[in-house]
Specification:
mainly alpha, 7 strands, DNA Cyclobutane Dipyrimidine Photolyase, subunit A, domain 3, 546 residues, two-stranded antiparallel ribbon, Rossmann fold, 21 helices, Serine Threonine Protein Phosphatase 5, Tetratricopeptide repeat
């Protein structure tokens, strides 16, 4: 067990020096950050590899390795720039295993006049920093994270007095602010192509023939000596982390991340838009970018990603529908999700708007299931720490939603099991978008979420239409009762039956719920019975019915 000495009390500290203790966390690896630019010759940068960050939720071995390797490469670059760095390796004998105690230990050495850091990406870490400040009396300076296009205050101003936080309206303001994909200037500027988004054109399945031409796999990066050393440390200190590590090939440096961006723009962006919602069992990444981990670690800047994509459109190398979809994910959805996270506060994580209490099925950790869609998508996560957004939302997330899993169990799984997992992005996506659990108190009748205006629930027929998963499955996605009924379809109809009353006031659910009303009471009872039996079989505990 890690040692956890108390933070040094105020009276035990000697008179501070003029040096500052600058904290750099693993998701803040931006060499151009305001914090890095502000460093003086007497300042010390503290970087910490602590076991608790891979244990507060079970962290995929590749996620842990990615953070550690990227941090070590970043620290080495700081040293090359003559920055004083105090680096705590995961397997160092004196490592106490937690941020709070490592900062306390560094304070006794540096005796700083101030602790300074970039705004963290998690409420939990912010609370830890405030505890250190209060216990030591050392001033804490938190600099804005200028990686993002919108500050928390700006988002709060936008969100104030709005009955609903609709991402589309936020996205349009982002387009106007940045000028991205806009024609003309000032108030007369219009969106390129005359439309703000092209979602209606971007929901194509592949059909029986599959993706054609076959997508070029993302650029991979062979582990270097630094990465291999980090892997050895993980194997010694955290041998029981879930997930495979042998396939690790993620970018861990700024140079590698830029190469990955160029690879996406050159080889996959053009076909990304039309097929961004499609899935294919033999193609784990398809035309997706796989850049989210580099963005979330700050190895890439969102502006350069958008500008390179837009340059490809202007040069005739990528269609507008693909470029707009990519830009929207970055300046629209990514910024919106972060805004929601900091707007709603730390209690946001405890919301459970649909009152679900089931446990996460064990196959989320093993992929040991006879459901082909879940076997492919969970297996892919275990193998690589990656799944593209439609696999997350409409397969692994959809199943958790409709089967009745507790939303916190789902958000913790997404945080720990994906290499791009950082709390500010994972929690609102999982809790709000996937689980439809983030309804605000006093929001009126019905169940309308903050992030999503309707639950993204679907039957096995959706998965059959958008993938080839069902062709190799023993279950029939068209069947909702009986031994060959697809569990996704069974749970989908059970979900609609269970939530019929609270969803009655959600206008986006009106047409769907009419299908429930057409069922006989006997048919509804059989679905409910089959779903309850299936829950017990899968280890999902019973829950209150809506």
């Amino acid at each position: 067990m890690p040692r956890t000495p108390a933070v040094a009390p105020k009276r035990s500290l000697p008179k501070p020096t003029s040096a500052r203790l600058a904290l750099v966390f693993g998701d803040q690896l931006d060499l151009d950050a305001a914090l890095i630019r502000s460093l003086g010759p007497d300042d010390t940068v503290l970087m910490m590899e602590v076991a608790s960050e891979s244990r507060h939720v079970p962290s995929h071995a590749q996620r842990t390795l990615l953070f550690l390797s990227a941090m070590r490469h970043f620290a080495a670059e700081l040293v090359r720039r003559k920055v004083r760095v105090s680096y705590v390796a995961l397997d160092a004998t004196e490592n106490t295993g937690a941020f709070e105690t490592e900062i306390a230990r560094a304070i006794t050495v540096v005796n700083p006049s101030q602790i300074v850091c970039t705004h963290p990406g998690e409420w939990r870490v912010l609370a830890m920093l405030e505890r250190v400040r209060d216990a030591t009396g050392i001033p804490l300076c938190i600099l804005p994270d200028d990686h993002f296009l919108t500050t928390s205050d700006e988002f709060g101003t936008w969100a104030s007095n709005r009955a609903a936080l609709t991402m589309e309206f936020f996205y349009r303001e982002q387009r106007r602010k940045t000028g991205y994909l806009m024609e003309g200037t000032g108030k007369s500027a219009k969106p390129a192509g005359g439309e703000w988004n092209f979602d209606k054109e971007n929901r194509l399945p592949f059909g029986k023939q599959g993706p054609s031409p076959r997508p070029r796999p993302p650029l991979s990066f062979k582990p270097d000596e630094t990465t291999r050393a980090a892997l050895a440390a993980v194997a010694r200190v955290l041998p029981d982390l879930p997930g495979a590590v042998d396939s690790f090939a993620w970018p861990v440096t700024r140079k590698q991340a830029l190469a990955a961006l160029d690879d996406f723009i050159t080889h996959r962006l053009a076909r990304f838009g039309p097929f961004e919602d499609a899935m294919w069992s033999s193609e784990p990444t398809l035309y997706h970018s796989t850049l989210s981990s580099s963005l979330n670690l700050k190895l890439l800047n969102p502006r350069e990603c958008c500008e390179q994509a837009i340059a490809a459109y202007r040069a005739g190398k990528a269609p507008l529908q693909s470029v707009e979809a990519f830009v929207r994910q970055i300046i629209g959805w990514r910024e919106f999700i972060r805004g929601v996270y900091w707007l709603e506060g730390p209690a946001y994580a405890d919301r459970n708007g649909l009152d679900r209490h089931g446990e996460l099925p064990s196959f989320y950790w093993t992929a040991d299931t006879d459901m082909a869609c879940m076997k492919v998508c969970v297996g892919q996560v275990l193998d690589t720490g990656f799944g593209h957004h439609i696999q997350r939302l409409m397969v692994t997330g959809n199943f958790a939603l409709i089967s009745g899993v507790h939303p916190r169990a789902v958000s913790d799984w997404y945080l720990g099991m994906f290499v791009d997992g950082v709390d500010w992005v994972t929690l609102p996506n999982a809790l709000g978008m996937v689980m439809h659990a983030d309804r605000r108190a006093g929001a009126g009748k019905g169940v309308t979420g903050l992030v999503g205006t309707k639950p993204y629930a679907a039957s096995g027929k959706y998965i059959e239409r958008m993938s080839n998963y069902c062709t190799a499955c023993r279950y029939d996605p068209a069947e909702r009762t009986g031994p060959s009924a697809c569990p996704v379809t069974v749970f989908y109809w059970d979900f609609l039956i269970r939530t019929r009353e609270p969803m009655a006031h959600n206008q986006r659910m009106t047409m769907i719920l009419k299908n429930v009303d057409r069922m006989t009471p006997q048919a509804q009872a059989q679905i409910t019975l089959d779903a309850d039996l299936l829950r017990r079989k899968l280890g999902i505990t019973a829950e209150p019915r809506g």
